[in-house]
């Protein structure tokens, strides 16, 4: 049953902001979580990005803080009352933006602090007083230690993408931050999965939480056409181009497992004339924001990225997702392909499986609870990049690239030998379909204009223009103006 926001009896100031964003009905996580948080209960929510979980925790927090809404200019009248912790700068920035939108008609103040930016403007904001503080753990600790913020009046804490925070190693930071907070508070924990570690965290810091699960962690959308192609590493780029061209795909995510691999792949695709940008953790904050903006605006067609950098980003649904590498962590597969094929739009998820991926494919089959059929894909000889050899280092492959591939193989503990190609003439394998998932309910909103031609359709010759990563930025969000990169967080 759909439930509308009007049933919640939110403050008219919040209702107005919601209406302005064009939302009438709540998403499943919102319908379940908002009433519970309004009652002041702790919540343990299993929800992925794209489900509307930001509003699910932001709206009830703001509603409950309306009793503190005041127009005083005194910082003392605006202590931090809600703390939202996220694993990455991009996520923190994205959530803070949404908090601002929902709170725009109230006098409740909010700000965001994360690493990679100068601390001074953040300090100035904190000193003015804010009710909602969105932060990454490392930078928040810096501010706590510098006594830029006091957290003894915090009433609400949100640990968003908690599983990822633990993956990144933020547990000690989280424990320290939580030790600064009053014991009497509402704590909300959102995570894509409820692993034993997450359950331990919840047991330590949540009181009698209500568990809300809107989708199993292994759910993939029924509207996503999934293919697993057995191909050699050397053929991946050619196959990627071939599929983009043949399917007339306008924009796509290409996921790789390592930062170095990500940068290299983006560079080589760019050299081949594909309009590409890269998103990985070694990029500066400014470069990461630029890459995102370029993709969102349709200025680039391919976003080559790693999981950590791309996790949780609110990028509108894209027509296709390529797993250039099978993810080390099977759950990342679900996150990756969750970016395509939302209701109303059919999406394509293509995974390139090489001989050394047997163990990872086994993990994936276990998570998805089904056998995944590998399809053979024959590449015509003339489609192979010039200088193709069967073994050893390829002519177009830099020595470091070969070394990196070896290192990745070693870290996986699998033998480096190559699996033989499947014989040609094999009967076509039906795409694997996953069970329906009502969460993926947003149609694709193309950012390209209807007549725009993706770069792979015109990519006969490499383009001479500069990479979008080094073009001067046209638009600088006010938040980042004149903020030199200081450190990472
Ligand atoms: P989130 O999971 O919070 O990152 O939200 C994913 C996207 O859904 C964002 O673009 C939100 O603005 C959007 N959204 C949030 N709530 C709703 C809603 N009730 N109806 C439609 N879209 C929503």
Which descriptors would you attach to this protein?
13% strand, Rossmann fold, alpha/beta, globular, disordered C terminus, seven-stranded parallel sheet, binds adenosine monophosphate, 17 helices, 489 residues
Strand order in space, largest sheet: 3-4-2-5-6-1-7
Q: Which hetero ligands occur in this complex?
A: adenosine monophosphate
Using the coordinates shown, work out and report the CATH topology of the largest domain.
Rossmann fold
Q: From the alpha carbons, calculate the radius of gyration and give it in angstroms.
A: 23 Å
Instruction: Give the fraction of residues assigned to helices.
Output: 25-40%
Mean pLDDT: 78
Question: What's the CATH H-level homologous superfamily of the largest domain?
Answer: P-loop containing nucleotide triphosphate hydrolases
Give the biggest beta sheet. 7 strands, parallel
Describe the SSE topology:
Elements: H1 12-20, H2 28-38, E1 43-46, H3 53-65, E2 82-85, H4 89-102, E3 110-113, H5 119-128, E4 132-135, H6 137-145, E5 156-159, H7 162-168, H8 171-179, E6 186-191, H9 196-205, E7 210-213, E8 224-230, H10 236-247, E9 252-255, H11 259-271, E10 276-279, H12 285-297, E11 302-305, H13 307-310, E12 320-323, H14 330-337, E13 347-353, H15 358-368, E14 375-376, H16 399-412, H17 455-458
Bound molecules: adenosine monophosphate (AMP).
Question: What would you note in describing this structure?
Answer:
The protein is α/β, with parallel strands linked by helices and 489 residues long. The chain folds into two domains: 5-213, Rossmann fold; 224-408, 3-Layer(aba) Sandwich (Rossmann fold). The model is unreliable at 382-451 and 460-489 (pLDDT under 50). The two termini are 42 Å apart. The protein is globular. The protein has helices at 12-20, 28-38, 53-65, 89-102, 119-128, 137-145, 162-168, 171-179, 196-205, 236-247, 259-271, 285-297, 307-310, 330-337, 358-368, 399-412, 455-458, and strands at residues 43-46, 82-85, 110-113, 132-135, 156-159, 186-191, 210-213, 224-230, 252-255, 276-279, 302-305, 320-323, 347-353, 375-376. α2 (28-38) packs parallel to α3, α3 crosses α4 and α6 (137-145) crosses α8. The structure holds adenosine monophosphate. Adenosine monophosphate binds at residues 23, 25-27, 30, 49-55, 314.
